[in-house]
Write a structure and sequence with these properties.
The complex is a heterodimer of chains A (314) and B (115).
Chain A lengths: L4 H4 L8 H15 L10 H16 L1 H8 L42 H11 L17 E7 L1 H6 L1 E6 L5 E6 L8 E4 L15 E7 L6 E3 L2 E8 L1 H6 L1 E5 L6 E5 L8 E4 L15 E7 L7 H13 L6 H8 L1
Helix pairs in contact in A: 2-3
Chain B lengths: L6 H7 L5 H9 L6 E2 L12 H16 L4 H29 L3 H15 L1
The chains are: A alpha+beta (314), B mainly alpha (115).
């Protein structure tokens, strides 16, 4: 953006620093994206406004701009994310006191909203004699890979020294937030306690890798299994299963075990497990293998790189 | 991984952020830090949503000269606005999935209330 910063702020070059500040304040009010969450164009406009103000608020940079030493792009701000982009994210800790939870009859939700309206709010002005709900407290919790995939329970220590078991849902993912009702800060004036928000970070596993609900694993096989085919045992997050390796399998071939990935509650089909096969030679090459391969090489010409080398030249 | 920042990083990243200001935000509970599960040194950390929110708070403090009390009120209103917007959107989605006659009845009630 190289528009004139004076134009952006609606000023002329003779503006005083007081006028610049006043113009900026007025524009913040009307163009800040977080004060106008539905205005898609606000972000671009506010960026230009902020850049213009950055340039003009400091008399030194303003003088340099006026003298033509720096251009209007000199004060371009780095990329930033606005709060409104996060406000709707699940587990936003700043949206507390939502009165209608998942419990209760869905048909009563609207009656509940109407009741809340008559009851009145005021929860944010603590210490003035109102009953105020406690604040939500946020914690991070490292969840081992398999616990996240299969579900389970983990203990978490609260600041007051107490400990509670957190139920980890099956298929928990990195960054997921769990809400424990009433386990946050205490309320005042008879208000309810806040909630504890547990942000999950899922650990890694030496063998399994997870992408969404799919599990990836690399499975070593022998040369004879690759050539002749075999039935082998493959690990999954729920324990070993039998896997048929087709005859003539190359390294890198991926077998899909349907439904053996991460299952989730809520009727979604479980993910798959993708097994990448890797041919592994025996630790020592014995004479019989060497002799066979030597003979085989002499009688069987096969160059799997032929196409590759040709294409590399085009 | 959820990227989390320490107090020092937050002060370095956000234009206009100072330690005094950060302490005031935490004191006023307009920013709720993430506490580590184990309490090593009691160091709070901040996620991306907190960074964006602190940036907004700095904008409001610098751009509009709001003091701590006014900031608290404005943020509380913004939070309520987002809550209401989210509820409205969820409702709109639910209504959208209903049969045409239900949509028409709700739409008519909605329009009448705006007159």
């Amino acid at each position: 953006m190289t528009t004139d910063p004076y134009t952006t702020l609606g000023l002329t070059r003779s503006a005083t620093s007081g006028e610049i500040k006043a113009a900026y304040r007025k524009l913040v009010r009307t163009h800040h994206p977080d004060l106008h969450p539905d205005d898609a164009g606000a972000e671009a406009r506010f960026k230009a406004i902020a850049a213009a103000y950055d340039l003009l608020k400091d008399p030194a940079t303003r003088a340099r701009f006026d003298a033509g030493e720096i251009d209007a792009a000199g004060a371009e701000r780095p990329q930033r994310q606005y709060y409104r982009d996060f406000a709707d994210a699940p587990g936003n800790p700043y949206q507390q006191g939502r009165g209608f939870g998942p419990q209760g009859d869905p048909a009563d939700i609207f009656a509940e909203i109407l009741r809340q309206r008559t009851r009145g709010g005021g929860a944010d002005f603590a210490g003035q004699g109102f009953a105020a709900g406690g604040t939500d407290l946020r914690y991070t919790l490292e969840v081992p890979f398999l616990v996240a995939a299969r579900g389970g329970e983990l203990p978490i220590t609260l600041p007051d020294g107490g400990s509670i078991a957190v139920k980890i849902p099956q298929g928990a993912h990195d960054g997921q937030t769990l809400r424990l009702r009433g386990k946050g800060g205490p309320g005042s004036g008879g208000g309810p306690a806040g909630d504890a928000l547990i942000i999950l970070t899922v650990g890694s596993h030496p063998m399994f890798r997870r992408e969404g609900d799919d599990i990836h694993v690399t499975l070593p096989i022998t040369i004879d299994e690759a050539v002749l085919g075999a039935k082998v045992s493959a690990p999954t997050i729920a324990g070993p299963v039998s896997l048929t390796i087709p005859t003539g399998t190359s390294s890198g071939r991926v077998m899909r075990l349907r439904g053996r990935g991460v299952a989730r509650s809520g009727g979604r089909p479980a993910g798959d497990q993708l097994v990448e096969l890797r041919i592994v030679l025996p630790p020592a090459i014995d004479d019989s293998l060497r002799d066979f391969m030597t003979e085989w090489r002499e009688t069987h010409a096969h160059n799997p790189r032929a196409d590759l080398l040709n294409e590399a030249m085009t | 991984m959820t990227d989390q920042r320490t107090e020092d990083e937050v002060i370095a990243i956000i234009p206009g952020m100072t330690r005094t200001r950060l302490v005031a935000f935490l004191q006023a509970e307009v920013i709720l830090p993430i506490r580590r599960k184990t309490f090593e040194g009691n160091a709070p950390v901040f996620g991306r949503i907190d960074i964006a929110r602190m940036q907004l708070l700095c904008d409001l403090a610098d751009g509009l000269d709001l003091d701590d009390d006014a900031l608290g009120v404005v943020m509380s209103l913004i939070d309520q606005l987002h809550m209401a917007r989210r509820d409205l959107r969820v409702l709109a989605l639910a209504v959208e999935a209903e049969a045409p006659d239900v949509r028409a009845r709700i739409g008519a009630a909605f329009r009448n209330s705006r007159r």
